[in-house]
Design brief:
Elements (H helix, E strand, L loop, with lengths): L1 E6 L12 E4 L3 E3 L10 H5 L3 E3 L5 H4 L2 H8 L7 E5 L1 H10 L20 E5 L6 E3 L2 E7 L7 E6 L4 E4 L7 H7 L5 E7 L7 H6 L5 H8 L7 E5 L6 H11 L6 E2 L5 E3 L1
Parallel strand pairs: 3-4, 4-5, 5-6, 10-11, 11-12, 12-13
Antiparallel strand pairs: 1-2, 1-14, 2-3, 7-8, 8-9, 9-10
Helix pairs in contact: 7-8
């Protein structure tokens, strides 16, 4: 497996893009603004999109993706998510008011896009690659994902705050190699982090203490203008894990 980071910022501007990662050439993990950096050929090759949750910074470019490549493909793009997330997308995004319902265009029988409901405990296998939703704790229904090549696994937590059930699942992963976890706020904004279902450096440190396996730790969703300060605060509290900031265009092979 090769996972390329298209976007991992807590906002946009100055070359920063929101959450999206390309697995090999055909699978997106979230569809934030980072999708816009792909070429038309790269966009056309995407067959599957796995969504962690329905917030705009994770789904904003799925409508543009479908609109751009729908007529260039011979099969629908499949969007995978838990049932509550798909319901939000159907009601509030692909609803003919915000954007057309591409599950009915050009026809019900031959749409540009289709939904696939997944649940915690499911494992979706695509050409030997296993993708498993993991529990997340956010202000809307949400999941993270385990990406398992068979040789090694990468865990992406998605947006989450403190979450004991996540670590119970992660600690079962014998081939764990990487953990990509958020810290959306600096320590000075801890109360905002708590109210909005995110992590900050002290909450993150408490979460990492629950990890019982060795893994390389990468921090995503850092707010613009606060990246260096937040990473310094994380490093001071989580030195044993030697966490690093996730970077746009970073490539993981596992």
């Amino acid at each position: 497996m090769k996972l390329r980071v298209l976007g991992c910022g807590g906002g946009i501007g100055g070359g920063t893009h929101t959450t999206s990662m390309l697995l090999d050439s055909d699978i997106l993990i979230d569809g934030g603004t980072g999708v816009g950096s792909l070429t038309l050929d790269e966009l056309t090759k995407i067959d599957h999109v796995f969504v962690t949750h329905a917030h705009l910074d994770h789904v904003a470019f799925i409508p543009f993706l479908v609109d751009t490549v729908g007529s260039l493909r011979d099969k629908p793009l499949t969007v995978y998510a838990i049932a509550p997330t798909l319901e939000i997308l159907q009601q509030h995004l692909f609803n003919w008011h915000i954007w057309p319902d591409f599950t009915k265009i050009p026809s019900d029988q031959s749409p540009y896009m289709r939904y696939e409901t997944i649940s915690l405990g499911d494992v979706v296998e695509i050409a030997g690659r296993k993708i498993k939703p993991l529990p997340a704790n956010h202000v809307v229904p949400a999941v993270g994902y385990q990406l398992d090549s068979g040789h090694a696994s990468l865990v992406f937590t998605g947006d989450t705050t403190t979450n004991d059930v996540l670590w119970a699942e992660v600690n079962k992963i014998e081939n764990l190699k990487y953990v990509v976890i958020e810290s959306a706020f600096c320590e000075e904004k801890k109360e905002i982090a708590i109210r909005s279902g995110h992590l900050c450096p002290s909450l993150l440190a408490t979460e990492l203490e629950k990890l019982e396996r060795h893994a390389e730790i990468f921090i995503t969703h850092l707010k613009q203008g606060e990246e260096e300060m937040t990473m310094h605060q994380i490093e001071m509290r989580s030195q044993v894990w030697r966490p690093r900031a996730l970077k746009k265009s970073q490539l993981f092979e596992f």
